[in-house]
Amino acid sequence: MPDFPPLQNDLILRVARGESTRRTPVWMMRQAGRYLPEYQAVRAEHEFFDVVGTPELAAEVTIQPIDRFDLDAAIIFSDILVIPQALGLEVQMVKGKGPHFPNPVREPSELSRLTDDPDVHEELGHVYDALTLTRKELNGRVPLIGFSGAPWTLMGYMIEGGGSKNYKKARAWLYEAPEAAHRLLQKTTDVIIEYLIGQVDAGAQMLQVFDSWAGLLGPKTFRTFALPYLKQIAEGVKEAHPEVPLVVFAKGAHYALEDLVETEYDVIGLDWTMDPKAARLVVGERVTLQGNLDPCMLYGDEETIRRAVQDMLAGFGSHRHIANLGHGMHPDHDPEHARVFVDSVHEVSEQMRHV
Ligand code: 1CP
After folding, report:
1. Which of 79, 85, 209 to probe ligand 1 with, by most ligand atoms within 8 A of CB?
2. Dihedral over Cα of 301, 307, 310, 314: its sign
3. How many CB atoms lie within 10 A of CB 184?
4. Is the pTM of this model over 0.95?
5. Binding residues for substrate
6. What is the assigned CATH class of domain 11-352?
7. What is the distance between the alpha carbons of residues 184 and 155, in angstroms, rounded to a whole number?
8. Where do the annotations place substrate binding (predicted)?
9. Where in the chain are the domains?
């Protein structure tokens, strides 16, 4: 492992492990992105996947929000869709539309198009290089989070060929071709485990698995097609790196909370439709919870954001909570409102510990 500067703020790592801290740590999903003019300036000159593929650029945009706000973690600038790329699928980022696969996996018979046992270091070495460079350039200011998409969410994109409202084609596979679905999920899982272990070797200090479309499954399909693979990922990564906290964000999967507590994930991310108090009642102090302000709350004025932060912090309590939004930031968010969110979390959570 390369030699890195000593960490000056380890709040998020300590809270993930269940320790008490003087304030609640905070970061924001999609904190690097289009709402920042300095990100837009980089994107005006470079294509999305060129930023992802060029360590100097990826490091620059990863650190942009850290320079601007008092955040407690950085998340490496990349995308969940680099895994389908490593499996041999072409992914384009279409302006104003999002990701597009010109040639998705339309039928189970097309699974043979995916690369068998891809060389992850060869295919995704640019992400490792970006992590190593970013960790050096962060100079120990905050921990660096690595991430991957979850198998089910990635299966959705690979079959649909891009974003979709209901992932109908991918969900049809679960019933029409369950055996093929499992083969695709297992293949993706194997790559994800190797990829996440490689990210830690390259410098990631915490890892998040994004199951953004978990909420499209029901309790039974989640237990059959999502949970076993999420578990394999946690077990595989923990075997190699037991010290690295793991976060799972299964958006919309209300029914999965109890199941997820029983896995090796240290942190469970909640979206904004879940009630912090109710979630805490289910999980107790067994895991750390992360979230969960509605990203649209950032359209409100300063007072509205502050009150929302107070409610959220009161709901989660002072222990085992990492503050975040309940999903990613939007491109038209005002950066100054993000600042109010971050600063309010720090101020209010410190006050809460003194009453
Ligand atoms: O033109 C642009 O700049 C594209 C916007 C953008 C950005 C900034 C995309 C396209 N991806 C990203 C970066 C990104 N994506 C990060 C790193 C930056 C950070 O968080 O600060 C991360 C962690 C992701 C993860 C990601 N990509 C997820 C999981 C989180 C979530 O939002 O649920 C998903 C689903 C994607 C796919 C994706 N990539 C980009 C878009 C617009 C989408 C969503 C497409 C859709 O289904 O509608």
Report:
1. 79
2. negative
3. 25
4. yes
5. 30-34, 49, 79, 157, 212, 327
6. alpha beta
7. 7
8. 30-34, 49, 79, 157, 212, 327
9. 11-352
